[in-house]
Design brief:
By secondary structure, the protein is α+β, with helices and mostly antiparallel strands. The protein is built from 9 helices and 8 strands. Helix 6 packs across helix 8. It is elongated. The two termini are 17 Å apart.
Length: 261
């Protein structure tokens, strides 16, 4: 996991702390609230706020004496989103997730009743059937596929899978349409899917949705690893990290609906 290091430039760190705190507050904070929560000396905080006001990174409501995000901060966010390349962001996320957790990470999209893999980052212990970008596999047997199926409207789901004989890959593969639908309800509620030896004996995969700015699920990010040695605590940490990383990609694409578990 990521280790937080001591900041090299204290003043720069304080500026970022102030911006992040003001932008992330549920309601605009006063000077006193900012000072209390960030622990910055009053004189230093006063100078920081004045500089940020002058450069329009923040604004102040003079009547209520509260601070909020300024025009420059909003412009930078908009420019960043406009310059975002979707495939690049997804590829970077798979690499980062793979490196952090030492897992094989994938990203996939839905094509009919199949998933098509659009990114892969391989770990030292590659536990995956996916051999290359563009690899296709039935969605019902994979965590990424189930995340994508769970986002479909009921009619769309039935159009893709009704009257289809679901392939069995292991004794754990769900081949009943009714059981799959029940599983998808839980997945939609939880915000992630787990494939426990459903496609690979001895393998486990955790996937979470990537959403666009309209909140539509259009891709899924996953971590695949051997089931050996994975206890509930370790699994919980992996689930949280996969969800966090998928949410980061969604935010880079303009989706700011909170999905981090």
């Amino acid at each position: 996991m990521i280790n937080k290091k001591k900041p090299n430039v204290k003043s720069a760190s304080r500026v970022l702390d102030v911006i992040e705190y003001i932008a992330g507050c549920p309601k605009p904070p006063t000077f006193g609230v900012i000072q209390e929560n960030l622990g910055i000396p009053k004189s230093s905080l006063s100078y920081l706020l004045q500089d940020l006001l002058m450069r329009e990174y923040i604004n102040i409501d003079e009547e209520r004496k509260v601070y909020y995000a300024g025009l420059k901060l909003i412009q930078i966010g908009a420019i960043s989103m406009n310059n975002t390349n979707i495939l690049r962001e997804i590829a970077l996320a798979t690499k980062k997730l793979s490196k952090e957790l030492n897992v094989t990470s994938h990203a996939a999209i839905l094509d009919g009743r199949f998933v098509v893999y659009i990114a892969k980052s391989q770990s030292t212990t590659d536990f995956s059937l996916v051999t290359n970008i563009g690899f296709r596999i039935p969605a019902h047997a994979t965590a990424v596929g189930k995340v994508l199926l769970a986002a479909l409207l009921p009619d769309d789901f039935l159009m893709r899978l009704q009257n289809v004989e679901l392939e069995r890959y292991t004794e754990h593969t769900i081949i009943s349409l009714k059981k799959l639908q029940e599983d998808l309800v839980t997945i939609a509620k939880n915000g992630y899917a787990i494939d426990y030896q459903e496609i690979i004996p001895g393998g486990i995969c955790i996937a979470a949705p990537i959403c666009d700015k309209t909140n539509k699920v259009f891709a899924a990010l996953s971590a695949t690893l051997p089931v050996t040695g994975i206890d509930d605590e370790a699994l919980g940490k992996i689930i949280a990290r996969v969800c966090f990383m998928a949410n980061c990609v969604s935010m880079r694409l303009g989706n700011f609906n909170e999905k981090i578990i």
